[in-house]
Design goal:
Helix content is 71%, strand content 0%. The protein is mainly alpha-helical. It is globular and about 60 Å long. It starts with 23 loop residues before the first helix and ends with a helix.
Amino acid sequence: MASLGTRSRRPSSGASSSTEVPTEKDRLSSFEGIDNDYSSQHTVVNESSARDVEEGRGLLKQEPKNQTTRDSSESNFGWAVFWIIVNTLATIGIVFTNKAIFSDPSLKLAQLTFAAFHFFMTWLLLFTLSRPQFAYFNPRRIPLQEIIPLSVAMSLNVILPNLSLAFSTVTFYQVARILLTPTVATMDFVLYKSMLPRNAILALIPACLGVAMVSYYDSLPTGNINVKTTSSLGVMFAFSGIFASSLYTVWIKSYQRKLQVSSMQLLFNQAPVSAFLLLYVIPFVDIFPTWTEVPAARWLMILMSGVFAALINLSQFFIVGQTGPVSSTVVGHLKTCLIVALGWATSGRSVGDKSIIGVFIAIAGIITYSIVMLRHVTRPLR
């Protein structure tokens, strides 16, 4: 793991307005962050933020002074590959673990309690990383009145997608999350008058069409009881979750600019407030199981889900400091494809099922969008 060497100080930056128009890199990072948000859906990392990059670099292994440049590069590459593998496996693990947890009727309707548990695990991880023994980032206190709206959005960003996962197939759940990108782009346009390149907009059309096809065919009833389908509740929660997650993503970027904080500092303030707010609602909304009747295997899965969430958060910060937007985007698409493929393999559907056409169209559209945005971001200045 990374050594506990002294971190370099982050350069200070001037204040910026909360209404600052998002840059192309911000828009590109919206898909990367979204891809990792489902990870436990409580961490949306703005990967274009200079503070996040500096914090991520602070997590990297410190090399001895007499190490050659070549050895240092190979070591950094090795650590980058390691954390990418950890992030990918943990992301896949948490989706299927959560699906197994929500498949238990006694746990399906305890969503707020489950979300509060994840918020606590997130806070515990960040609290540990902020201690003087590690000093991976300096915690900053944000006034409660400033953080409450974002904490409410954070809670909805977790609960609604989790409800979607509980009432839909993994394939539909993952493909539907692709709509986060056009929804965030629309919100950026409405709030900041920020326009995407024309080719990027054109690429989002087939992505939306593919999601629509999957939504239709995946929710059709089948005569085969072994084929898993998506209920109307799953579709409703999916689209409401997409709106909540998109709003949360836009707000994350806005709050970071307004408060001049990093993702770690912001999340460190959000997580406990979100958990505390849920405590007021849990008794009126959640239906608790009889704890003694829940199998030990389910408790183990819940613990694993929390561990996966911590690993996703930790590895994402390493990846932010080690890789650029191209690598992060490729990793995001890899995880999407793997989860969709595994979800399809466990759904009981045949290769000839019509919804697979929508899957390919949606994924091809979002990959094309990312390629267009990467070229737009990296184009030479004139």
